[in-house]
Structure to design on (591 residues):
């Protein structure tokens, strides 16, 4: 069996794709990659469809050994050092590994999450349409659980590829920043004007009790106009719930489908990847945009990934390759929002 | 927020369309747990599913609102809301009556360790609690918390019981429990502060079945008491993928 041996999964590694969409009405959590941009880029670099399931790792990537004739891998996400058989290789690049090759992804210099994609994807069953792992309900991935040392993940493809490996130049890697954009609502009317002003003008620090389900924050309390409890309703990704103490909790990939706290705002989908790369201790500010702007920014994000794919260098091509330069020019401005 | 201060409206007020980022809209009919609101939620849900609006990804019905998720590459919130507003007009009655389920329950003993306590709190016998709990018809307001966990309205008021001060770390799958003014069947093992009256062999969530989800929002449920021996027989059948719950015609 062609497989990737998990020698060491790091602090937390799970299989994730774009999530288990379509079953929230039955209480099924969407899950999926915390950083959708990095997942899509890792897959495109590996030569996959953008939404193929990849290994999402946290703070450190761990060690993997190839148990197949060949395996093309790509790593994207935070700034993780990557090496193959002890030799440093690039992130945001694909590498064709051979049987017995040892891939080590170290501790992140910055950022929190990274993705290890393999060409052809992993040969695991889809559960309710997705391979995303949701640990709390034990669905998807490998037996619904985080990857364990010693387990083997079957590979769907085990051949060599004729086309060259690709890489993205570091200047084009998505960058972190200390603010995210939000659309006010659905329950912003349950907060005082002062409460909303506080939310939009203060820095909130991410607390250690933050995970794939949600980030807890600490900062100036956001005042409710009345009761902070509401009759439960649906929760969109990025929902900013404000609990009784006035502190916000942002609901992320592993959020439950319904909840009973008032939600002052929703982080826009184009900025959820920014949040996914923040760590406990980081301070974040919130900036309001309209629904139309948020929709435009999502479209721009997806178009930006398409343009980045056109800007991939092929190993063996020269750096001043005209097509690549053109691609780079197309990029200018696309990810400008990602710079601090 | 002002709903509770207004007299009951004869003509339903139009829903509010609230933004939830760039991929979801909340259609809010009110702010309470109420059968009439739930009817409107389910009616709009059925109409959306019938209309087949391109770009709508999924809908999540809850007590008093409907979350509609969409793909902004296909449809914008502005267009979506105008379509939803059209569909919501006159959609006050549930278009279709949900299925009515009978769920067998073995009450008390090892199957429901809080039965005696709940009876004591309400100054009645365990048999009274069973008669009241199994005599009511419950409405599935929404499904959430865990896959297949149905929030049921319709618990007789005399059985309304505050939740446990200390939640249990794990309540087994199939637990039939009450908490506050609600009732539920636990689809999977989960932590909970609810009181366990009994257990059903029915698995409301089972991936081995073609349709893993037994119960849908808008369905109705009745509980039917069974003995421990029958529980064991049905549990063995459930183990093979049998639903062991049955439909009945709506009254």
């Amino acid at each position: 069996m062609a497989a990737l041996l998990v020698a060491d999964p790091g602090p937390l590694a799970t299989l994730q794709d774009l999530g288990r969409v379509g079953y929230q009405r039955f209480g099924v959590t969407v899950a999926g990659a915390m950083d959708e941009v990095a997942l899509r880029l890792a897959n495109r670099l590996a030569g996959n469809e953008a939404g193929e399931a990849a290994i999402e790792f946290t703070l450190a990537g761990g060690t993997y050994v190839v148990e197949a004739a060949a395996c093309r891998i790509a790593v994207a996400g935070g700034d993780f050092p990557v090496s193959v058989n002890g030799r440093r290789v690039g992130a945001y690049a694909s590498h064709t590994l051979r049987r017995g090759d040892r891939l080590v992804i170290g501790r992140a210099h910055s950022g929190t999450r990274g993705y290890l994609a393999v060409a052809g994807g992993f040969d695991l069953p889809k559960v309710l349409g997705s391979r995303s792992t949701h640990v709390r309900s034990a669905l998807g991935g490998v037996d619904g659980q985080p990857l364990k040392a010693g387990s083997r993940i079957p590979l769907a493809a085990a051949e060599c590829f004729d086309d060259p490996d690709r890489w993205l130049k570091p200047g084009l890697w998505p960058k972190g920043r200390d603010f995210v954009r939000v659309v006010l609502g659905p329950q912003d009317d349950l907060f005082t004007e002062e409460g909303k002003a506080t939310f939009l003008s203060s820095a909130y620090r991410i607390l250690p009790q933050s995970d794939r389900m949600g980030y807890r924050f600490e900062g100036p309390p956001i005042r409710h106009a009345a009761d902070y409890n509401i009759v439960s309703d649906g929760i969109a990704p990025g929902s900013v719930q404000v609990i009784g103490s006035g502190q916000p909790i942002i609901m992320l990939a592993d959020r439950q489908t319904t909840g009973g706290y008032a939600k002052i705002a929703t982080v826009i989908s184009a900025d959820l990847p920014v949040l996914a790369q923040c760590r406990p201790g980081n301070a974040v500010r919130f900036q309001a945009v309209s629904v139309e702007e948020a929709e435009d920014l999502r479209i721009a994000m997806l178009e930006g990934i398409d343009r980045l794919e056109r800007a991939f260098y092929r190993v063996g091509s020269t750096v001043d390759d005209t097509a690549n330069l053109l691609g780079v020019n197309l990029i200018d401005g696309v990810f400008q929002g990602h710079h601090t | 927020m002002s709903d509770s201060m207004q007299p009951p409206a004869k003509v339903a007020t139009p829903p509010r369309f609230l933004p939830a980022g760039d991929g979801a809209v909340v259609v809010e009919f009110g702010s309470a747990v109420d059968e009439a609101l739930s009817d409107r939620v389910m009616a709009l849900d059925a109409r959306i599913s019938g209309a087949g609006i391109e770009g709508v990804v999924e809908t999540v019905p809850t007590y008093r609102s409907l979350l509609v998720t969409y793909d902004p590459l296909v449809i914008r919130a502005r267009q979506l809301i105008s379509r939803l507003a059209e569909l919501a007009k006159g959609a006050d009655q549930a278009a279709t009556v949900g299925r009515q389920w009978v769920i067998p329950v073995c009450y008390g003993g090892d199957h429901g360790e809080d039965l005696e306590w709940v009876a004591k709190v309400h100054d009645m016998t365990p048999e009274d609690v069973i008669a009241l709990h199994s005599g009511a018809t419950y409405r599935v307001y929404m499904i959430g918390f865990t896959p297949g966990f149905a929030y049921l309205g319709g618990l007789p008021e005399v059985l309304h019981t505050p939740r446990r001060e200390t939640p249990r770390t794990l309540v087994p799958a199939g637990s039939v429990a009450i908490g506050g003014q609600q009732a539920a069947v636990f689809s999977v093992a989960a932590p909970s502060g609810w009181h366990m009256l009994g257990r059903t062999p029915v698995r409301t969530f089972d991936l081995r079945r073609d349709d893993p989800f037994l119960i849908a929002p808008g369905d109705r449920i009745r509980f039917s008491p069974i003995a421990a021996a029958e529980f064991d027989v049905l549990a063995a059948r459930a183990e093979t993928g049998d639903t062991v719950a049955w439909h009945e015609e709506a009254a």
Residues 87 and 170 of chain A are 19 Å apart (CA to CA). The longest helix of chain A spans residues 291-310. Confidence is low (pLDDT under 50) at residues 319-340 of chain A. Chain A touches chain B through 50 residues (CB under 8 Å).
